[in-house]
Amino acid sequence: MFISSVIVSSLLAAALVYAAARKLTHTPAVVAAYARAGVPESWLTPLAYLLIAAAAALLAGLAWAPLAVVTSSALAAYFAVAIGFHVRHGDVRHAGMPVLLALMSIGVGVLSLTR
Q: According to the UniProt entry, where is the signal peptide (predicted)?
């Protein structure tokens, strides 16, 4: 189970860093994509830093499983809110990535509980 945990945690951490890097660019396409979901541009940088911290915590959680469980739970809540933003603003078509990342977050938590 530890190998599975390493793989899923690493993939999720990489996805979080990628999402954070996109947010930090503040390019018009990125700003427009988040605006469609109701996220103001002023939130992008703080959300990016939050995702970077979560990625670091996931990797540290490989050494200490309780940290991985807490981080994955927080990420599942973060992505549940993201899904809610997409649904509330009629942007359901773009909710697939937050759903996938929420499921991966739950997977990390489950795998961390079983090691």
A: 1-19
